[in-house]
Design brief:
Elements lengths: L8 E5 L4 H17 L4 E6 L5 H7 L3 E4 L11 H24 L3 E4 L5 H11 L3 E5 L6 H7 L4 E4 L9 E3 L6 H4 L7 H8 L7 E5 L6 H16 L3 E5 L14 E4 L5 H7 L2 E4 L3 H10 L3 E3 L8 H12 L2 E3 L7 H12 L2 H18 L2 H14 L6
Parallel strand pairs: 1-2, 1-4, 2-3, 4-5, 5-6, 6-7, 8-9, 8-11, 9-10, 11-12, 12-13
Length: 370
């Protein structure tokens, strides 16, 4: 540990998307809460979401150039070696200037050069992978890392252990029972009737929107209310019915989760982790584009009985009527899902503490003098 600092200097690298930034900030908050004297720095790019969220949270953002890995032979591929070396040099300069004791990477453009720079500076590395199928940066970082944490069982990363997803403190502190009345009032729904929460990410999901545009009345006829975040670009016309509230975005996701008795959503790593941590049963409709990680993200919750899965291509209004409406009418099935979710919730709530424990072990095993 650096003699210039009585407390460790942490460099947390990652960003680009909320999936990388949010767990990073959860760990940063956990470190700061434990030791107010610790120096916590964040490495990110100028372009990513971190450029706004990190300073807002009160952390210093150190900049590294965004250098995408080339995926085809073109001009960017020719420029990559020079840009890559420059990015590594930038991170090495940050490590030296600030006396960094450990680098913690969460994937994304900022993490890849950070892993190489830390290795060359003799600084231990801890890697956290959110998705069940790891990204390229974390595959690189896992080689020679002091510790590798993954959110879901079966994630193929060398030397990994399942630690869960670091989640926001405010989400873990959510009292769903106490806040249900406030949440119902905020969205204009009845707190005494069950609520189906439907969302597909910040942009919405066309597949979910179209299915519920055709089947929302069947859900309402089953005695349920719907809170549906349709997204800014993929919206559906408002129904005008008081039991079907469609909004562009869920600016108060905490209140939406406080109100939800069942969720239909995509299966992003954060979504699966948050719903599991809160013990909310779900029907996941994994996003079909990409490398299939969303279906893998949902697999452990489905296997535990806390969730069900419907493939994107099969998710239609008829499928809502055939599969989801009967579930909404089956109190015993819902209770079984809630019980299963409650059983796996404690492990899902421990992600931040587990990653910090990995960081502590990495610091403890670092060479003398750092």
């Amino acid at each position: 540990m650096s003699a210039a600092h009585p407390s460790p200097v942490f460099l947390l690298g990652g960003g680009g998307t909320a999936g990388h930034v949010n767990p990073l900030l959860a760990v940063a908050d956990g470190l700061r809460e434990r030791d107010g004297e610790a120096s916590i720095l964040v490495l990110g790019t100028r372009e990513g979401l971190e450029s706004r969220l990190v300073p807002e949270r009160g952390y210093e953002l150190l900049i590294v150039d965004k250098v995408p890995f080339p995926r085809r032979p073109n001009g960017a591929a020719l420029r990559f070696p020079v840009a890559w070396r420059r990015a590594i040099a930038q991170v090495r300069a940050h490590i030296r200037e600030h006396g960094v004791d450990v680098v913690v990477g969460f994937g994304g453009y900022a993490s890849a050069p950070a892993y190489i720079a830390a290795r060359r500076e003799g600084v231990p590395v801890v890697v956290h992978e959110a998705n069940a199928r790891p990204g390229l940066a974390n595959v690189l970082g896992a080689r020679g890392a002091a510790a590798v944490g993954v959110t879901f069982p079966g994630t193929p990363l060398r030397g990994s252990e399942v630690v869960g997803m670091p989640l926001r403190r405010e989400l873990l502190a959510l009292d769903r029972v106490a806040q249900r009345g406030e949440a119902a009032s905020f969205f204009g729904l009845d707190p005494d009737r069950p609520v189906l929460l439907v969302f597909g990410g910040s942009l919405g999901a066309v597949r979910l929107n179209e299915a519920f545009a055709g089947a929302w009345r069947d859900v309402v006829d089953a005695g349920w209310q719907i809170l549906h975040a349709v997204g800014g670009r993929n919206g559906v016309p408002a129904s005008g019915h008081p039991s079907y509230v469609a909004v562009p975005y869920l600016d108060r996701m905490d209140l939406a989760l406080a109100l939800a008795d069942l969720v239909v959503s995509r299966a992003g790593a954060a979504t699966v982790s948050e719903l599991t941590a809160l013990g909310i049963p779900a029907v996941y409709v994994p996003y079909a584009v990409g490398n299939g990680e969303q279906a893998r993200n949902a697999a452990s919750a489905v296997a535990a009985g806390a969730a069900r899965l419907i493939p994107d291509a099969q998710f239609t209004a008829d499928r809502v009527r055939r599969d989801i409406v009967p579930l909404l009418e089956d109190a015993e099935a819902q209770e079984a899902m809630r019980a299963a979710a409650a059983r796996i919730a404690p492990a899902a709530r421990a992600g931040t503490e587990n990653v910090i424990a990995q960081i502590d072990r990495a610091l403890g095993s670092a060479r003398p003098g750092r």
